[in-house]
């Protein structure tokens, strides 16, 4: 809610004004020639920022403990911006095996066409990241927690691998291009996880989720502390013509003041439901970083200050996939739909054998639940009545 930036306008209200413009008028040629938008000291064209988008950027940078922020039209566009700003032909990007699917898909299809390679690493084994690095490595993506199975990695250990690699590179190379670490902080949302505390270079967030909180806008943010990295991102962003509309920026600005309250409320509800779900027949395993047997629980406990509204259910191997579909269909408060962190609880089934490599000792369908802002007793009753499907099928 509070931040250092003051828009150069003489109207101060609690909400930020919604400015919309393509053209910004200049009083004379000298002003047209001299105005610089890059440091937010002036306005030149709608695409280069308005008072509304500059304020949102400042607030998000403050929230994340960074210094600079750039907005993108979606979370995925923000991932693409980071890739395109830092990678060139011949480089390689490293992606955790449990990453948000479209991040990997972008690398497999778009980046590959530009001669940029990618490798996957096991985020739960820092040594695997070390083993995958090569002289072509330029960018490492991190995610805490993983998108669907919610493993919480040892981010300090992964960052130690990045730092050692950069030190070795600096010793042998006269003009080293350091390996950059970017963390998808959508889960932590600037509330539960602070990537810059661990030396991460770039924090990216889907504002679509918590910061908006309304399930009514798509937007992404890329936050940095380092000015040079920010400027590289800013130039790529400008050349690509990525824009965020004033009305959409307003929706996120409206969501931000209640971000912490919503995060805490949804966290408490999700933890209660996740712990309860563990006791239910047919449920083999519940993934939620706060549960002691969830992968990476100790790292979550050490490094995070809360948990997002997500938990995933893995079912006993003898539960038929049709029974799991019936469970999802029978839910009434949890609705079927993508995204999360909005007011409504949501449910998505994932086909795990197609989704990830390696053994999967449970029924093939995993169900990820996102807890909204409904009454938690209603949600528990809803899950209980839908889980009866597992017994009757
Ligand atoms: C939703 C999501 C994104 C992408 O956000 P969009 O705005 O939907 O493009 C990226 N990363 C994670 C972890 C997400 O959950």
Write a structural description.
The protein is an alpha/beta fold. 38% of the residues lie in helices and 16% in strands. The strands form two sheets. Strands 1-7-6-5-4-2-3 form a seven-stranded mixed sheet, sandwiched between helices. It has a five-stranded mixed sheet with strand order 8-9-12-11-10. It starts with 28 loop residues before the first helix and ends with a helix. The chain binds pyridoxal-5'-phosphate. Pyridoxal-5'-phosphate is lined by residues 74-76, 100, 147, 184, 186, 206, 208-209, 218, 220, 339.
Helix and strand topology:
Layout (H helix, E strand, L loop, with lengths): L28 H6 L16 H14 L3 E5 L2 H12 L5 E5 L4 H13 L3 E5 L4 H7 L4 E7 L11 H18 L7 E5 L17 E5 L13 E5 L2 H14 L5 H10 L3 H19 L5 E5 L9 H7 L6 E6 L5 H10 L4 E2 L9 E6 H4 L9 E6 L5 H17 L1
Parallel strand pairs: 2-3, 2-4, 4-5, 5-6, 10-11
Antiparallel strand pairs: 1-7, 6-7, 8-9, 9-12, 11-12
Helix pairs in contact: 3-4, 3-7, 5-6, 9-13, 11-13
Short description:
The chain has 13 helices and twelve strands.
Question: Which descriptors would you attach to this protein?
Answer:
about 400 residues; alpha/beta; seven-stranded mixed β-sheet; five-stranded mixed β-sheet; 13 helices; about 15% strand; binds pyridoxal-5'-phosphate
Distance between the termini: 50 Å
Oligomer: single chain
Query: How does the overall form come out from the CA principal axes?
Result: globular
Beta content: 15-25%
Report the total helices: 13
The helix-strand sequence is HHEHEHEHEHEEEHHHEHEHEEHEH
Which class of secondary structure composition applies to the elements? alpha/beta
Low-confidence sequence ranges: none
Cofactors, ions and other ligands in the entry? pyridoxal-5'-phosphate
The count of DSSP E runs of length 2 or more, i.e. the number of strands, is 12
Mean pLDDT: 94
State the helicity in percent bands.
25-40%
Largest sheet: 7 strands, mixed
Question: Strand order across the biggest sheet?
Answer: 1-7-6-5-4-2-3
Radius of gyration based on Cα positions: 22 Å
